[in-house]
Amino acid sequence: MNRCSQWTPSQFIMDEKNVPIRTYQVCNVLEPNQNNWLRTDWIPRSGAQRVYVEVKFTLRDCNSLPGVTGTCKETFNLYYHESNEDRESYIKESSFIKVDTVAADESFTQVDVGDRIMKLNTEVRDVKVTTRKGFYLAFQDVGACIALVSVRVFYKTCPLTIRNLATFPDTVTGADTSSLVEVRGSCVNQSEEREEPKMYCGADGEWLVPIGGCLCNPGYQEKSGTCKACSVGFYKAKSSDPGCSKCPPHSHSVRDGATVCDCHSGFFRADSDPPSMACTQPPSAPQQLISVVNETSVVLEWAPPRRLGGRSDTSYSLECLICQTGSSGSHLCLPCGSDVLFSPGQTGLKTTRVVVSELRAHTHYTFIVHAHNGVSQASGAGAAQSVSVTLTTNQAAPSPVSFIQATDVTRHSLSLAWQQPDRPNGVILEYEVKFYEKDQRERSYRIMRTFSRSVDVTGLNPLTVYVFHVRARTAAGYGEFSAPFEFSTNSDPFPLIGEGVNSAFLLLSISGVGILLLISAAVFIISRRRSKYSKTKQDSEEEKHLNPGVKIYVDPFTYEDPDQAIHEFAKEIDVSSIHIERVIGMGEFGEVCSGRLRVQGKREIYVAIKSLKAGYSDKQRRDFLSEASIMGQFDHPNIIRLEGVVTRCKPLMIITEYMENGSLDAFLRKHDGQFTVIQLVGMLRGIASGMKYLSDMSYVHRDLAARNILVNSNLVCKVSDFGLSRVLEDDPEAAYTTRIPIRWTAPEAIAYRKFTTASDVWSYGIVMWEVVSYGERPYWDMNNQDVIKAMEEGYRLPAPMDCPVVLHQLMLDCWERERAERPTFSQILNMLDKLIRNPGTLRRTGGDRPTATMLESGVGSEVCVSVVPQVCMPEWSMCVWLQSIGLERYRDTLAAAGYTSLDSLLALTHQ
Ligand code: ACK
């Protein structure tokens, strides 16, 4: 240190532990107007943006100094000066900026320096240093008796760490106490990004809000923050798999880091088999194939293979061969034609029974049944997995003629022609034609026989519709008649050119399409009715089962006329009884003023007056007044009270009770660190009590946040802001999606507008955090997208500084992902009451201290900064409690009414 003016280096003296130390001292307490400066050497900043200065010193109590007048001081001043110059010999006093005036916690009175054991004071101050390469510190004495024992200067970093398999480097904290430094992590070796890894370095050297992360590559698994190769006999196929797995049966891996295990010889894996599946084999042959011939059909049946190869995807296919014995006795087999029918199919069969029909009569066939599974192809398996049968079909009559054509139609005749049946099943010996007048049905018909595939039909009546059927005969007998074909004779003696039309078929087709359309329309209408019905049912099922004894909030928008709602729930106030005094802020619809209200027969009270600015639309008027219609339904000490409304003259006004301390967030920021924990819990209790009342009335607030809580002069907190505009955003298509207060809102309400009392409980947890951190912004300066992502990944706000563990646990309970798991407001209220009754439970705080990096040390040894708990409640009495919430003036009144203990006070009702 540089020595200036009256500061002198001392001889060795003893510290608390009796260790000899040297100090810089000054003690000009008898002379007035002291101004003694002691300056450090230049201290390099080394990238730090905020440095901490820990000063250890002793200070002499002025009263203990004999003969000292008013000149003696008990403080000194700490200054800094930023500079790029590491050897400034002279710096003007005015170049230094004051950090703080430092006072001692303990001063000493003893005079006997010889044996004295000093009591050291340790004070820490932090300074933002961002403009130069380094800085100087200076200590200004203004007339105290001080010995500076050590000065330690350090800055904080978030230490190198690995989170979610991403490495985050040692990071210097930001310049401001609330700034977060966003750091991108890099994936550790043998890992890949799952989602961009990110974390924030907080001002106190702690990492916050890990988002995203990496996954070990295939063949590697996580072990203590690194990716290690799977060992022999193990594998990992996908990076998203949780870890290495043992090779499945009949497979092995011979090297570290396998992504898949190879099959043992004779075992196979199908392309679609997952790597986790055992290697398998093709099936053995089907068993016990039997055939039953019925004329030109065959039923084939078999039993499944003896060995399925470890799989369950056995299927069968059929091969059909027509076999002929040549003149030389040789056997020639050819594939059956495509006209053979297989039911249910020829390939990909899952059943063990097939009916083969449309075979040729009296023909030799060979059927081969193959068994397959997923690895048949990979294994190259062939005939080994099949079984065959050879058979001969029976004699069979020909199949029906499928098409008849009429030509040369005259008044009395026509010519018919047809095709040979698809399956003649032998040599056709003859065709038989049967026909009759359509009107006669089959009561009388005529038969004609022919060897050819045509016939001239004569002797018909003119302009008459005839029905014709044709059938064929072989040695096995007649086949079935064809379907009916209708043709009409005409009025002309000469044939008309044209083909016959199966008119019945046409008629059926047209009417069929019509009927189909009718049916579809009916089905559509019925299904619409059904879905509407089920929706109504669902709606009614979702309706609350309301308890008849409990007062329920009425949505003012259920009134057709909004003025009816407002006059049902709010009192009209004569504008002449309102005296506006000053503007206190801006609301959503216009100015908010404070003033006085004098209603006849009542004493004058302070009120807040919200007014609706001129030029409003109908909708704005309705939304503005809806808040009063809602507020007017409530009557609770922790809900802002509506005094009345002015609707009969302009501007429209809403008059509420006046809350002297304004909104809670601003109030807490203004009084940072000034309340005891019990006072904070008292505020939270009030809010919980108001919210319990609202939830009992089935009212969901949707925007519970410290900014919407008002505080009066007695520190009583009241829930406010019942604006309806946000409630109208239920429609997921609404344009207002951006108006959801993301940081305060439960995930299900953000994702799909599920606003319930449970989502209000989530917001209450955030309010708890705001209160305990004295109005800090939840999730600091993170953006909304990151907040949503972090929530999804399970991140929750950490405990604020000095937050009792029980309170943080209660916050975490409010932030349960499953809304059914969150506590109710009634449970929260009980919990807070218990804490207030047993303040000892509030003493335990998280207490992890941040890491500190030394920059340059002065003299003496290092001492860690200790944090003194804000409340120490050795005893808990009614008197202490009233004192802590600033209501001690009511002590006597309460005592006179018989309320002498906290328990009796807790039993006190609103009435
Ligand atoms: O934080 P504040 O002072 O508290 O600023 C806002 C402003 O009006 C706009 O809402 C204040 N305010 C609203 N209602 C009341 C009230 N009943 N009593 C006192 N201040 C109020 C609020």
TrEMBL record:
SMART domains, from UniProt? Answer: EPH_lbd (SM00615), Ephrin_rec_like (SM01411), FN3 (SM00060), TyrKc (SM00219)
Its EC number is 2.7.10.1
Q: Sorted alphabetically, which CDD domains does this protein's record hold?
A: FN3, PTKc_EphR_A
Report the catalytic activity.
L-tyrosyl-[protein] + ATP = O-phospho-L-tyrosyl-[protein] + ADP + H(+)
The Fibronectin type-III domain covers 282-396, 397-492
Q: Give TM regions.
A: 504-527
Q: Where is the active site?
A: D703
Record domain SAM: where = 881-911
Q: Where in the cell is it found?
A: Cell membrane; Early endosome
Query: Start and end of every Protein kinase domain?
Result: 578-836
Annotated membrane topology is: Single-pass type I membrane protein
Q: Which UniProt keywords apply?
A: ATP-binding, Cell membrane, Disulfide bond, Endosome, Glycoprotein, Kinase, Membrane, Nucleotide-binding, Phosphoprotein, Receptor, Repeat, Signal, Transferase, Transmembrane, Transmembrane helix, Tyrosine-protein kinase
Q: What name goes with this protein?
A: receptor protein-tyrosine kinase
Species this protein is from: Dicentrarchus labrax (European seabass)
Gene for this protein?
A: LOC127367618
